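Long-time lurker. I teach an intro course on protein structure, and each term I like to show students one example going from raw sequence to a predicted 3D structure in token notation. This year I'd like something fresh instead of my usual example. Would anyone be willing to generate the tokens for the chain below so I can use it in lecture? Attribution to the forum is fine with me.
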Amino acid sequence: MKEIKKTIAEWSKDFNVKVLDPDGFDRTDRYLHEKVFTRAEFEHGLAKSTAIMLPFTPEMEALIDKARQPRPPQRLTFLSSPGVVLMQGDITKLEVDAIVNAAKSSLMGGGGVDGAIHAAGGIEILKECYKIVETQGECKPGEAVVTTGGDLPAKWVIHTVGPVGTGSPMETNTITEPLWLCYFRSLMLAKSMELKSIAFPNISTGIYRVNKLLAARLAIQAVRGFRAVFPASSVEEVIFCCYDTDNFEIYKRLLTDTEEN
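-- Reply from a regular --
Happy to contribute to a lecture. Here you go:
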């Protein structure tokens, strides 16, 4: 007897399950037109993949919906670093004078926070980026330029280009210096514009592969260095806005360790 073969979506329907990715989002429909598998292949493939197969019941759906509900961002302040705020959340939602974009050299948008800022900010940001590149060329790692905030709650976007790392916790000066400058020059721009609040993402820690701990140390050093040099600066609040939990916990540990020493 010939074994029955079906798509993953069809097998999921037969077993009344949903295929979820590790973040809890339903990915069953993406397998509607995939190649077909036997039942054994379907079960074996799910067991080895990063997908999660869960019984689809009203109770399970309610739990998934509850887990997806946005939580109010946690904001931490530190006595040892006055004016520094640590939070985990979406930088494009912040009502601050300026948010910093981890941009590509072309300033034409990309993935990660770069793509999110361009998507949320609209065409006006891209138009101004185009004018900047047309006038002064592409930005090099460590440089920073500013555009309107477009449709964002933030008034301005400071675009800075981070270096591409190797993932090692011991990078050379060709990586560490430009990354430090990303933060320092962004703060200098904010100072020159007499801005009061600025929010930074975790520059270069995504696809640019700079070690997260190293990047956090450089970011904190740059902010403290700026405050030491310009104690009377207009910049009253510096926010480290972490998208992922790993970065948030690293910053929290570094800033808390300073608090305790």
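Some talking points for your students: The CA atoms of residues 17 and 54 lie 5 Å apart. The mean pLDDT is 84.
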